[in-house]
Every structure is written in C-alpha cells, then in structure tokens.
Amino acid sequence: MDDELKSVIRGIALLNASEHDGKTRNDSIISKVIGIKPELRSRIKDVIPLILQAVDDVNKLSVESQKEELARKYAELLIVKPKQERIGLPPLEGAEQGNVITRFPPEPNGYPHIGHAKASIIDEEYAKMYGGKLILRFDDTNPEKERLEYYAAIKVGLDWLGVKYDLVKNTSDDMEIIYKKAKELIDLGDAYVCTCNKDTISKNRREMLPCKCRAGNLDQNNTRWNKMFDKFKPGEAIVRFRGDMSSENTVMRDPTLLRIIDEPHPIHRDKYRVWPNYDFAVAIEDSIDGITHAFRTKEYELRTELYYALLDKLNMRKPKMLEFSRLEFEGMPVSKRVLKPLVEEGKVSGFDDPRLPTLEGLRRRGIVPEAIRKFVLSLGFTKSDTMPPFETLESINRTIIDPKSVRLFIVFNPVKLTVTNNNLTEIEISNHPQNDMGKRRVEIDGSFYIPDNDAKTLKTGDEIRLLELYNIRITKMSPEIEGEITDTSYKPNIPKIQWISRKNPVNMEVLMSDVLFVNDQFNENSLQIKQAITEQYYLELNVGAEIQFVRFGYCRKDSANQAIYTHK
Ligand code: ATP
Ligand code: MG
To answer: Among 140, 185, 311, 468, which residue's CB has the most CB atoms within a 10 Å radius?
Structure first.
C-alpha cells in the first residue's frame, strides 16, 4: 500500500515539477494527492512526510531526469485530457447585475419533461448568475387542453429538480389587462375582428391576400369585438393583428391574437370565453412581468418578429427574446402529441412510466436531479438541434449515484450450488467498497443460488470465488453443482461470482427500459420484466434507494419487490 502510494506521489511531484521549470512544492502536491485519493484525507498526517520526501527528491533531480522518469514510469499522467466542456452558461446579452428577470412559462397541458428541465434550469441559472429573479408563469389561456392536475404536476417536477422560483402566477389572472390591450390595438387600427371562415383565412394567408374584414372600420371592429363576448360562436370571429399580408414571414400575415373558446377554464370556469393565443399572451405578459430576458425554443424563432411588433404598437417595454434548441432524446419523444396517445392507449403505464423522458419517468428510473442539471448545463445555450445521446445523461448520473449506491447481490435464473464443507453460519458484507454505508449480515449454510449464466460455464475441477466469501473448487456438476472450499485468498484469474443464500432468498423483479420508438415505430419490446432473487437486505431499503447490483448494474428500488434498472 505504502509503496503504491509513494509511487503515486512521486508521479504527481514529477508532473508538477515538469510544469514548473523543474521545481515542485509541497502544497501543490498535497491538494493533488487528496484530489486523486480522497480517502487519504483522514490519514493526511501519515501522508505528509511521504510528500515532503518526494518533493525533496524530485527537486534534486535535473530537469532532464525528471522528464525521462516521468515519460518512462508515468506516461498516463502525460496524456492531455480533452478540454472539459465548459460547465455553465455564457454571459447574457445586455444583462445587468441585480436587474435580470427570467420566466419559465409552461402551459399546464401535460406533465413536465426533460425539455422543460432544460428551459427551467437555464431560466433559473441566469436569474442566479445575475442576482435576479425567476417567475414561474402558467401560460393557461387555452382551456380546451389545460387541467388543474398539470399545474400541480409542473410544480412537483420543478421542486424535484430543485428549480426555485421567486414568484408564481397565471396568465389567466391578467385577462382584464389582456382585453384592455386588445381593445387598444383595435382602437389604434392595428387589429381587427375577422369573421371569415378558417379555409378562407388559410387560403388568403397562402396567397398573401387581405380579406374584406381587414378593411372594416373602427365601428365595425368595436361592435364585433363586443359580440365576441356573447353573440358569436367559437370559430365565428377572431381578433387578428394587422400585420403584413405580403410579408415573407408567414407569421406576420395578420396572425390571430384572440379567439373564442367555450370550454370551462380549470381555474376561472366560465368567467371568460375570449382567450388570447400564445403570441399575444406571451408578449403582454413578458412585458408587464418585467421580464428582461425571455428564452424559448428555436421553432418559435419566426414568431419573434410578431412579439416585437405587438409591443411596438402598444408602446410597451420590450424584453430581450433569445432562442435555444429543443432537447430530446432519440426514440424518446417529449411532445404531448406523441406522449398523450401512448398513455391513453395504455402503451405505457402512465406519465411516470420509466421509458418516458418525463421528470416522473426519469425519477423512477433512478436519474437524479443533480445529474439533469449538470447534463443541461453541459449542453450549454446551444441552438444546434443535435440530439444528445441518453448515455451522456446516464454517465453523469452514474458518477453521482455511485458513491451512494448500496452494493447488493442479485441472481437471475438461479441454479443451486452446495458447498459441502462450509462451516460458516453468518458473514458480514460491507454495503459499499469505499464509503461507510454500513454492513449487512447474511445468514449462510452452504447452500446457494448462483446465476445460470455463470453455472453454464463451469465444469468439475474449476475454481471460482464466491464474492465476499471464499474460493471453492467444483467437485460435481450433476445432478446439482457441488463444491469444496479451497481457501480465502484473493486470486486474480478465477471467476468471481455473486450468490444468494438459499436460506432466505427474496423474490423480486427488475424492469428494464429500452427506447420507445425505433425508426418511428413503437418498440413492442421497450419494457422487459426480469424475475430475480436478491438478498434479505433489499427488504430493509427504502423505496427510492439506489442500488448497484454487483455484476449487473444500478437500479432504483421502486416498490417492495420491484426495482427499475437505471444503467450499467
Ligand atoms: P409541447 O410541444 O410539448 O406542447 P411546448 O413548447 O408547447 O411543448 P410549454 O409547456 O409551452 O411546451 O413549454 C414551456 C417552456 O419550455 C417553453 O419556454 C418552451 O420553449 C420550453 N420547452 C418545451 N419543450 C422543450 C424542449 N423539448 N426543449 C427545450 N425547451 C422546451
Ligand atoms: Mg405549448
């Protein structure tokens, strides 16, 4: 142990010397050694003399001998690691310290997903970066699709993610202001009420032609506006912005600002029937909420011209609108259009199905919030639409959960193995190889289960190690496998196999998720349920515990007898 440690220290000292004209220093080495081997922190008193000695020795060498030894013995230290992606976001255009207000504006029409995580985390990080505020604003002006359940689900999701907002509000609480602004646009001649049917409107938009409503005078518009609140039926009249019917940007061809919807609203029931659409609501709300920087996904880019045009006409303060790319994973759709039918048709068990990229789904799968945040920030504020591989999120997750995951044994397709000369009745196994996560006692009597996969490779005379226990030699393969203890010493080249004591196996199942869609086809094998046996200690773990099943992978305990596979 000490020799290995001395060698590590010498390598670090040599490297440090080579970076500093041949001279290294105690203090730089101490922090580097602890960085590489954090478990030495508690033994630092023993380690320091070794460091002092190494620094002394290395400083006595010529620069050439330092380089030579470094290259010969510590080549791995010389490999230049690829520059780490900058974790964090670039500075925000025009941002002033203390004066930044961002918002996360979900529509309460579904469960939050990884895309919402990206948006809300970026909103929050920028607010934090500039000592500003984040507003959670429910953009709830389409009662056809919105439900109270979703307002709650979004809050639960943000709480779980650890996204903290300073204020929460609903766009629907500002309906009087929105009506006032609509009326103002009508009075200014910048909006009109159109009673053409849908097809005519689309056709005119395509052909860049105005309709006769566009030419209507103020009286006509005011009368029609008033009639939208009682006389007109849904679809019979809409308020349109007087944009530019010949604009290259189709969004500007007299877009809809308000429409009639008779469905009761989840909060206001039937108090309102004239509802602003997305473009109108978001411009007014962002402006009156004091938002300085508003972000949305790139597919809205063309709408930004309209956003500024509306605020211009209304002479209202303009936030800065910026776009980033949508986040989704290959084969794991986030769009409500795709997700809802999957749930409704029973193809997945619910919005928390572990195959889904919803926050609930990811949580059940064992992805932790910290990993999501790191992952989102590692992608940065990008506009490019490349889909990051799900494995990137998994590998970030792995480094976070590894130190907290209990190590346990699991056996699939159990096969009996009897150790004929066993004389132990109980052993103690550490729950984690490095960290202090306690120990568990396992009762044994020489009768075990081992995985069929391993059993298949064995023959009489082979030596194997039963992990944490002893080495045995196989004495018999049929009718059942038998073995005899040889010794307990560590032998590098024999198979090391996990086992479950036959005294008290625990039956369980493991859910394994695969991508939902392959080439746009629903993957019928996207969920596998594997039967397994595990240790008694599994029963003592809380639901939600992260476990590393040795030689299998990380899983999250989802219920008493079920675990969900997280990743390798
Ligand atoms: P959907 O297609 O599911 O309806 P949406 O964009 O309409 O998506 P909202 O609930 O309105 O969903 O979105 C709230 C915020 O989250 C918006 O600012 C939106 O830009 C952002 N957002 C939604 N989906 C994603 C995504 N996949 N990646 C990044 N941001 C997203
Ligand atoms: Mg939406």
So the answer is: 140
